[in-house]
Specification:
Largest sheet: 4 strands, antiparallel
CATH class of the domain at 124-203: Mainly Beta
Strand content: 15-25%
CATH topology of the domain at 124-203: Pdz3 Domain
Distance between the termini: 22 Å
Strand order of the largest sheet: 5-4-6-7
CATH superfamily of the domain at 124-203: PDZ domain
Shape: globular
Oligomer: single chain
CATH architecture of the domain at 124-203: Roll
């Protein structure tokens, strides 16, 4: 079951990504030779408006193939012959649609079970929050320079700032409509962890339609910022290879989540699969925007250089850079998959 769920989730995320490229290509008059759901040999296909729409054998993602995307073409409706801003919109649309998908899925979750408001539920005795006069019911709105909208952002802030030890944290909170700012110096517990001394209840709050939309956006923002901060920790060497999961690790995570949710009923299985889909969709959007060759972000770098220079980079040189980047990414994926197998089965 975990493999089936993983295939469905991966396929949905990749298809929506490719749909973004497809729709913006069509809007800009670029000829899309094929838009396919799945990979491998075609099972079904039809041609309309010069585009072949295909359903393929392997239910793993999809593709959007455009004339002039990876090669020079003299055709007027080729990708390479459109304005630079048209090409930028087409490339950016893939990651953007992943964020849109995450937002739509978040609406289902927030609409069903509500959001985790950043409200203090309990003050721990002997810790800085109590000494500064904070109380249960205070709403946290800012920690240092980080705006807070959901309580998980508080938890993430505390986790990521363990490395800073006892460095003071400026906490802004609202009580009875008035803003207060206090400086709290985290206190170390018996296990060596630093805490400010307040906790949330974990209870979710349901609101009206506008509140649901607002907190659905905050949900996507949370996962985007979490992905970016995790990447920062990876580049700084603060996480190890064992903390990075690839396809095998994600399938294992989906399976564990499914088994843990199943006793609570289909509704909670559905919600947890939606939550994983939001995480992965936001993650894919961020990863694809990284300025690395072969990724959408790498293509955007060349396009913005074209804007600054007033002329395009030599296509052969750009193609060579993307080819090297693709080879490096493939090697990285092999290493990640090897690490996944080791962590899951050994």
């Amino acid at each position: 079951m975990s493999i089936i769920l993983a295939i469905l989730i991966f396929s949905l995320i990749v298809i929506i990504h490719e749909l973004g490229h497809f729709l913006l290509a069509k809007k800009n008059g670029i000829l899309v030779t094929e838009f396919s759901v799945g990979m491998g040999p075609r099972l079904l296909s039809t041609v309309r408006g010069g585009t072949r729409y295909s359903l393929k054998l392997l239910p793993l993602g999809g593709s959007c193939l455009m004339v002039g995307e990876d090669e020079e073409s003299d055709e007027e409706n080729a990708f390479n012959n459109k304005s630079v801003w048209a090409r930028i919109s087409v490339v950016f649309a893939g990651p953007f649609f992943n964020f849109v998908l995450a937002f739509i899925l978040a609406i289902f979750i927030i609409g069903s079970i509500g959001y985790d408001a950043p409200v203090v539920w309990k003050i721990t005795e002997g810790y800085p929050a109590q000494e500064a006069g904070m109380q249960a019911g205070d709403e946290i709105v800012r920690l240092n320079d980080t705006d807070i909208h959901v309580y998980r952002e508080v938890t993430l802030f505390v986790q990521l700032n363990q490395k800073n030890g006892g460095q003071p944290v400026e906490v802004e909170y609202v009580r009875d409509g008035e803003h207060h700012v206090v400086s709290l110096t985290p206190k170390q517990d018996e296990n060596g962890y630093y805490y400010l001394g307040f906790t949330g209840s974990g209870i979710r709050t349901k609101g009206n339609a506008l509140t649901t939309l607002k907190y659905s956006a905050y949900e996507v923002k949370y996962w985007i910022s979490t992905t970016i901060k995790s990447l920062g920790m990876l580049f700084q060497g603060e996480v190890t290879a064992d903390d990075v999961a690839g396809p095998v690790g994600i399938v294992d995570m989906i399976g564990d989540t499914y088994e843990a949710s199943r006793p609570d009923g289909a509704f909670y299985v559905w919600l947890n699969m939606l939550n994983i889909s939001i995480l992965l969709s936001a993650n894919l959007g961020v990863m694809n925007l990284l300025p690395l060759p072969a990724l959408d972000g790498g293509r955007l770098v060349f396009l913005f250089l074209e804007v600054l220079r007033g002329k395009a980079i030599d296509p052969e040189k750009e193609g060579m850079v993307h080819m090297i980047g693709l080879m490096a990414l493939m090697a990285l994926m092999v290493l990640i998959m090897f690490n996944d197998v080791r962590n899951v089965f050994f």
